[in-house]
Amino acid sequence: MASRRFLRYAEFALWVVAATTLIVAGAAVPAFLLGEGLPTLKLLLFVIGTLLFGVGSFGIQPERPKRDGQIVDLESGEPNRFEDRIQELPPLRGERLPFSDRVDRNVKLFTTAVAVLAVSAALELVFGVPG
After folding, report:
1. Which pTM was predicted?
2. DSSP letters along 13-63, please?
3. Greatest C-alpha distance within the chain
4. 1, exposed or middle or buried, with CB in 10 Å at 0-12, 13-18, 19+?
């Protein structure tokens, strides 16, 4: 049986990679159908990444003492279908990680935003996609 810490970070990594992949694939469809391909994809990923970065950065802020809670909080207390599907992937398959032991969704969203922005930057800096 794998340790809880390993499962926690494996679930976190799988969540971020899967969400980033879905965002890139979802943005690629309109970029290639309606736009100019890779330059449009790069721009869409930049815009989506920036928006997610904003929401994620509000979500990871600690609670302020004078407020009733956080400005943005994505935690619902129970997993959604996407998270249930992540639990079926190796190395989590057969090793059910309780929802309370998982990394906070706000942290996952913030990290996904950074990954989406990194893909956008890689398209320009590594692959030379024009702006």
Report:
1. 0.88
2. HHHHHHHHHHHHHHHHHHHHHTS-SHHHHHHHHHHHHHHHHHHHHHHTSPP
3. 49
4. exposed
Region 99-110: what's the mean pLDDT?
Answer: 92
What is the enclosing helix (H) or strand (E) of 5?
A: helix 4-33
Q: Which residues contact 35 (CB under 8 A, 6 or more apart)?
A: 41, 44
Can you tell me the distance from the alpha carbon of 82 to that of 53, in angstroms, rounded to the nearest whole number? 20
Is the pLDDT at 93 greater than 90? The verdict is no
Tell which wins on pLDDT, 102 or 71.
Answer: 102
pLDDT bucket at 72, cuts 50 / 70 / 90: low
Token couple for 42: 């790069």
